[in-house]
Write a structure and sequence with these properties.
It is built from 13 helices and no strands. The protein is mainly α. The chain has a single domain, classed as ABC transporter involved in vitamin B12 uptake, BtuC (Orthogonal Bundle), CATH 1.10.3470.
Length: 269
């Protein structure tokens, strides 16, 4: 079995999948921690499904998938930030509305694309084995941007995440940093869709973070530990998907879920 795995590493698409998995894992560890701490899981789920409209837009106009999905997801994030900050009582209705409209737009645009005959299940459940060098460059650039922004504005983001009222009193622009977190979340969700698909992306952004939260007493610690855990889950999921010829995205999430179950059993003891 080990020989088979080492032989698999000689293939370029396997190498790309591993690199992409690691890049997305660390980006998810950083942004997932912010999503959980800021209680944005529902918002992130809405962005994930809304980004399907961007996929349809990219397919219809012949644009790169990442570009179309990123633009659409960022617009959705900005709208959600505006509604959350100004009309919080209507946020549930708004998320449900933009969620359904985004997916509907994506489906209709794909249907209207002449000659397009690609299985859309790859966007629902991920297609990490189809990652190319351009995708990896985009993921790497985004990870650098996320890491740089979080490092530079760590104190402000920390204050906004844990006590927005105190942050406001300290003169921190709460609305700006809240919106920034949502936009970075949208971009991370887009690249994570390539790995596990939009149906499973929230699990990737929450399961490792839940474990990391229990093992760390700081936000920075959560980010580092969750990034490491997510990387382990992703690599193990890829190995299992290669051995048993199953969908990579689903395999990664199942490994993550089993890791969470084992952690909960260990924690109780």
């Amino acid at each position: 079995m080990l020989e088979t795995l080492f032989d698999a590493l000689s293939y370029e698409f396997i190498q790309n999948a591993l690199i992409a998995g690691l890049l997305v894992s660390f980006a998810s560890g950083i942004i997932g921690s912010l999503i959980v701490v800021n209680r944005m899981v529902f918002l992130a789920g809405g962005i994930a499904h809304t980004s399907y409209g961007g996929i349809g837009l990219a397919i219809y106009f012949g644009l790169p998938i990442f570009l179309g999905a990123s633009l659409f997801a960022c617009v959705a994030a900005l709208l959600m930030a505006f509604v959350t900050l100004h009309q919080r009582d209507k946020i549930d209705v708004f998320i449900g509305l933009i969620w359904s409209i985004g997916m509907a737009i994506g489906i209709i645009l794909v249907d209207l694309t002449p000659g397009y005959n690609v299985d859309l299940m790859s966007y629902l459940f991920g297609s990490i084995l189809a990652v190319g060098s351009e995708d990896i460059n985009y993921m790497a650039l985004l990870l650098v941007i996320i890491t740089a922004l979080v490092t530079i504005f760590y104190r402000q983001i920390l204050a906004v995440s844990y006590d927005s009222e105190y942050a406001n009193l300290r003169g921190i622009n709460v609305k700006f940093f809240y919106t920034l977190i949502l936009v970075l979340s949208a971009l991370t969700i887009v690249i994570a869709i390539k790995v596990v698909g939009l149906i499973l992306v929230i699990a990737l952004l929450t399961i490792p973070i839940y474990i990391a939260e229990k093992l760390s007493n700081s936000l920075a610690g959560m980010m580092i530990i969750s990034g490491f855990l997510s990387s382990c889950f992703t690599i193990l999921g890829l190995i299992l998907s290669y051995i048993y010829d199953i969908t990579s995205g689903a395999s990664i999430i199942i490994v993550s879920a089993l890791g969470l179950i084992l952690f909960l059993m260990f924690e109780k003891r």
